[in-house]
Write a structure and sequence with these properties.
Layout (H helix, E strand, L loop, with lengths): L4 E7 L3 H12 L4 E4 L7 H4 L3 E2 L10 H11 L5 E4 L4 H13 L4 H24 L6 E2 L3 E5 L2 H15 L6 E3 L1 H7 L9 E5 L3 E3 L1 H14 L3 E3 L3 E7 L2 E7 L4 E8 L5 H7 L7 E11 L8 E4 L4 E5 L3 E11 L8 H14 L11 E9 L6 E6 L2 E5 L5 H18 L8
Parallel strand pairs: 1-2, 1-13, 2-10, 4-17, 6-15, 13-20
Antiparallel strand pairs: 3-9, 5-9, 6-8, 7-8, 11-12, 12-13, 14-17, 14-18, 15-16, 16-17, 19-20
Helix pairs in contact: 1-8, 1-11, 5-11
Pfam families: DAO
Organism: Acrocarpospora pleiomorpha
Keywords: Oxidoreductase
């Protein structure tokens, strides 16, 4: 039975909500997580990279130009029908946030958050059972212009402390023998790593439960307030009362936020993946094919390809077969060992919770409501930092958990 009262009610049990629950429960707080399908949202089929190097917000002039080209059918980010007025308004804010200089001012904030998160991963590994693998993240370029852009970005990132190495074709072949030839060069980010995101999310949830958190498969459908203060949430099961509430609902945040009377500019940015079984890891590194914007994470027993950034459309749409075929074709061209895999694999589509600025929203948004959302392409990377910050906000910032 769902407990009908908790100190903190976390809405959403993806990688972010599970991490929040873990850090709260670990501080001795009584936590309930409500989610009809915990760990089955964006946290399931994503690329599974922990990438403090990848912290340049997407709303920057270069990405904007790529995005505009994509509307002409020449890049993987797209607009899908139907496009709502809300999506158009969000895109307008995204364009404004893409003005020159803005992203490079925020990249430092995101990088520091990601580094803080990486240390959180070290702490979590002592309590949660999930492996990390890969010798870093390689950005690979076949086209000289792509290569020049990758080098420019890596050199700028170096100024804020992101370590990287520029590799020519011979050096690349020496460190990554699983790749075919044909690349002009690669940037290696040695501080990045990779994992299985579904297993890791489950491990965070299990660690939270060991500290006393309770997960219940209920959807939040309404909010009860008394004198302007949130007292309880109505669910598909019982009503659950709390002293504080955390909104960790990923790409559904705008809709769920409206139930709480808050407007949060979080828009689904759909992506897709294909996962194939393997007998061993086919690559030593996680890789990004920068020309095609396809990311590959090769783990001990499966290889996953991800790509796409689609705005508009519907959450319930299946991944497009041609988009999945493209992922496979790009990876097979570059990773010869993949060509013998006959299995059709598992195709998946999910939504990144995007904000116009690329910065997550981790703050009090009403007097006893904390938002932990909008992590865009970095939710796995930033989850431990988010959990720690939310636990700090709830325990240190005057939400009266223990007064009644
Ligand atoms: C193709 C792709 C590749 C990606 N690769 C990476 C990567 O390599 N590294 C990285 O760091 N990030 C990556 N991401 C981003 C990452 O997946 C997300 O940022 C992250 O999973 C968001 O986690 P979340 O917990 O906020 O959201 P979710 O995992 O979507 O969880 C939100 C939860 O809220 C629940 N919920 C919604 N409404 C309600 C309600 N009314 N009541 C109760 N519960 C509700 C949902 O059921 C869901 O379980 C990728 C994303 C995609 C799509």
């Amino acid at each position: 039975m769902t407990p009908e009262r908790a100190d903190v009610v976390v809405i959403g049990g993806g990688v972010v909500g599970s991490c929040v629950a873990y850090f709260l429960a670990r501080s001795g707080i009584d936590v309930v997580v409500l989610d009809p399908a915990p760990g089955k949202g964006a946290s399931a089929g994503n690329a599974g990279l922990v990438v403090p190097s990848y912290t340049l917000p997407m709303s920057n002039p270069d990405a904007l130009i790529t995005g505009l080209r994509s509307l002409l059918g020449r890049a993987p980010s797209t607009l899908a029908s139907p496009v709502s007025a809300r999506t158009l308004a969000w895109l307008a804010r995204f364009v404004l946030a893409s003005r020159p200089g803005r992203a490079w001012r925020d990249v430092r904030v995101l990088h520091e958050l990601a580094e803080f998160s990486r240390r959180g991963y070290d702490q979590l590994r002592s309590e949660a059972d999930f492996p990390l693998w890969s010798d870093g993240f390689l950005h690979l370029a076949r086209d000289r212009r792509t290569w020049a852009a990758e080098v420019r970005t890596a050199r700028r990132l170096a100024a804020i402390g992101v370590r990287s190495e520029e590799l020519g074709p011979d050096a690349l072949a020496a460190i990554e023998p699983g790749l075919a030839s044909g690349f002009v060069g690669a940037i290696r980010f040695p501080g990045d790593t990779a994992l299985d995101p579904e297993r890791t999310t489950r491990a965070f949830a299990e660690a939270a439960v060991r500290h006393g958190a309770v997960f219940h498969a209920e959807r939040v459908v309404g909010v009860r307030t008394v004198a302007g203060r949130i007292e309880a949430v109505e669910t598909t099961g019982p009503t659950v009362a709390g002293k504080a509430f955390v909104l960790a609902t990923g790409a559904d945040t705008a809709a769920v936020g409206r139930l709480f009377g808050v407007r949060l500019p979080v828009e689904p940015g759909y992506g897709w993946s294909l996962t194939l079984p393997t007998h061993a890891s086919l690559l030593r590194h996680a890789v990004q094919f920068a020309d095609e914007h396809v990311v590959v994470n090769s783990g001990p027993d499966r290889i996953r390809m991800t790509g796409g950034m689609e705005f508009g459309g519907r959450a319930s749409q299946a991944p497009r077969p041609e988009a999945i075929a493209t992922l496979r074709a790009v990876a097979e061209a570059a990773i010869p060992a993949m060509r013998t895999i006959a299995d059709p694999g598992i195709a998946w589509r999910g939504a990144r919770p995007m904000t116009p600025s690329g910065l997550p929203i981790i703050r009090l948004v009403r007097d006893n409501l904390v938002a932990a959302t909008g992590h865009g392409p970095l939710g796995v990377t930033l989850a431990p930092a988010t959990g720690r910050i939310v636990a700090h906000l709830v325990t240190q910032k005057g939400i009266p958990l223990r007064s009644s």
